[in-house]
Amino acid sequence: LINIFSPFNINVNCVHVCFGKKERKDLREMVKLRQKLNKEFKNTKVQCSIIESDGVIHGFEEFLSRQKIDIIALTTHKRNVFTKYLHPSFTKKFMFKSQLPLLVFHA
Questions:
Q1: Disulfide engineering: 17 pairs with which of 4, 23, 59, 83, CB 3.0-4.6 Å?
Q2: How many CA atoms lie within 13 A of 44 on its CB side?
């Protein structure tokens, strides 16, 4: 994502929505991600955020309403039959709700 849009002097927001309170593990992982991105992409402004919410879509929508976001990039991965029914894809749900352009990368 950063390599594609780096000529446009972008700001990148990495967002993780957690259910309930932020866990220490979430904070540690986000710090590691921020350090890695800042080291690899020194010329790109990267902000990492953890949002507490009762639902991923709700938390993500709240974040988008507070920030000036021009485009959203999400990753998706292959799911088995049981996972598809038990945990529907956030990316598919959000695709129909978003008013912003959406890029989907397959992990």
A1: 59
A2: 24
Pairing of strands 72-76, 102-106: parallel
Q: Supply 19's token pair.
A: 């259910």
DSSP string for residues in 4-59: HHGGG--EEEEEEEEESSPPHHHHHHHHHHHHHHHHH-TTSEEEEEEEEESSHHHH
Interval 42-91: pLDDT, tens: 888 888 988 888 888 888 888 888 888 888 888 776 666 555 555 556 66
Angle at 77 between CA 58 and CA 28, to 5 degrees: 65
Amino acid at 41: F
Nearest by Cα to 70 from 25, 17, 8, 27: 8
CA nearest to 49, candidates 95, 77, 15, 3: 15
**22-49 confidence digits (pLDDT tens):** 778 888 999 999 999 889 988 888 889 8
**Identity of the residue numbered 78:** K
